[in-house]
Design a protein that fits this description.
The protein is an all-alpha fold. It contains two helices and no strands. It folds into two domains: 48 residues; 41 residues. Helix content is 75%, strand content 0%. The protein starts with 8 loop residues before the first helix and ends in a 15-residue tail after the last helix.
Length: 109
């Protein structure tokens, strides 16, 4: 027994083609919507980063103070290491073996 056909082949093809066009239009719409949304998001993030960088920029006076503070820190480290080196040289001159000094000599307590 043959199943009855409720629609003709030409009508079936027409509906199939119409549905394919609708699907294609929907995919194109989603494609452009997604790309435009990502573009807006990208430019928004870049804009916020640039705005934040602009607002947190140091003034010339603050920049000068920061540079002076950094220079003082470096100079203090150089002085510390120079003094440490000088102390090491002085201790090496007074004691060749770098052994600690004791109060007595060989025979006395």
């Amino acid at each position: 027994m043959d199943n009855p056909r409720l629609i003709e082949n030409s009508t079936k093809n027409f509906l199939f083609q119409t549905l394919q066009k609708c699907h294609y239009n929907r995919v194109i719409l989603y494609y452009y919507t997604l790309n435009i949304g990502i573009l807006v998001l990208f430019f928004g993030i870049i804009g916020m980063v640039l705005y934040y960088s602009y607002k947190n920029k140091l003034s010339p006076y603050e920049l000068e103070q920061k540079i002076l503070k950094d220079q003082q820190y470096v100079l203090s480290k150089i002085r510390y290491h120079q003094e440490d080196k000088k102390n090491m040289q002085n201790s090496q001159i007074s004691s060749i073996t770098n052994l600690p000094y004791t109060k007595g000599t060989y025979g006395s307590p």
